Amino acid sequence: MTYSEPERTAGSRTSSPSCPTVPALGVTFYGCGPDEAVLFRELAPEFGVLPTITAAAVSESTAELASGNRCISVGHKSEITGPTLLALSRAGVRYISTRSIGHDHIDVAYAASVGVTVGNVAYSPDGVADYTLMLMLMAVRDARSVVRRADAHDYRLGEARGRELRDLTVGVVGTGRIGTAVVDRLRGFGCRVLAHDTHPGTTADYVPLDDLLRRSDIVTLHTPLTPETHHLLDRRRIARMKPGAFLVNTGRGALLDTDALVPALESGRLGGAALDVLEGEEGIFYADLRDGPVTSTALLRLHELPNVLISPHTAYYTDRALRDTVRNSLVNCVRFENGNHHG
């Protein structure tokens, strides 16, 4: 086998001297990095969970690690397709808690057809919101070029002056927990904020999407990825954006049609982009490819453009969010076993 040997950590449910000990709930935690493993070991006893922890991604070949456990927890880094779900179901798995807000990496409909329920977790929206504001500021101040010149000991001012947020209009697409946190932060900068969401959830100036694109100097994406939002910003909508506008994406890569974005950046039609997520990032982001080939031609071209910032899906990655994710994964599994899980 190519996956790492799982470890089992003791845990037991709370008991008193007059009550017998309740057997621990077994849960398999797939795809755990070292920091996640530490937290699962630390928090599992609090919930009466006996964790099986492995760095291996969930797959057909690793489904056996879930044998005897009805609940598993998975990360967002790998696709979970029909054959894997079928193997998990045959191993006795009835519930998957993904350690992410989105579950677009799991075939939820097929999971239901083989008797497996899928749930997601909530975590602090502040890390992604903070990171989004950082990317906006870096984009409008051309921070990538400034830092690169300074690294090469070129300390001259750039040809273009930066812009201040208070002079700009920012369009926020999607106002769930993260989008709302972004709106709250933007108020402190004094800029005009427009919002678009099919279910408005905060105090903001909500407008149709095409209107938002036409009027915004910065557009930032925070809507979930669904079949309806796939390529939400396609060639037609990118063409409707304000000339010189900046695009920020800390949501999901496929919200944006990368093949349509590249020529808009190359031509100068858009002022720049700051992307923490990218269509086709699977197998690339989170890997050390310094000595290996990067197979995405779109990513390679984006790296070449001076007005583009790329980071590897790291906006969510804070100590608070990680602890929230681990804790809520445990909560989800316990609730499912107790029969009161609501997704």
CATH homologous superfamily caption of the largest domain? NAD(P)-binding Rossmann-like Domain
Distance between the termini: 33 Å
- Helical percentage: 25-40%
- Quick one: how many beta strands? 13
Morphology: globular
Structural class: alpha/beta
**Count of DSSP-assigned helices:** 11
Q: List the domain count as a whole number.
A: 2
What is the CATH topology classification name of the largest domain? Rossmann fold
Q: What's the architecture of the largest domain in CATH terms?
A: 3-Layer(aba) Sandwich
The CATH top-level class label of the largest domain: Alpha Beta
What would you note in describing this structure?
The structure is a single chain. The protein is globular. The protein has two domains: 7-123 and 319-337, Rossmann fold (3-Layer(aba) Sandwich); 126-310, Rossmann fold. Mean pLDDT is 91; it is low at 1-5 and 10-22. The chain starts with 6 loop residues before the first strand and ends in a 6-residue tail after the last helix. The chain contains eleven helices and 13 strands. Helix content is 31%, strand content 15%. With 343 residues, it is of the alpha/beta class. It has a seven-stranded parallel β-sheet with strand order 9-8-7-10-11-12-13, with helices on both faces.
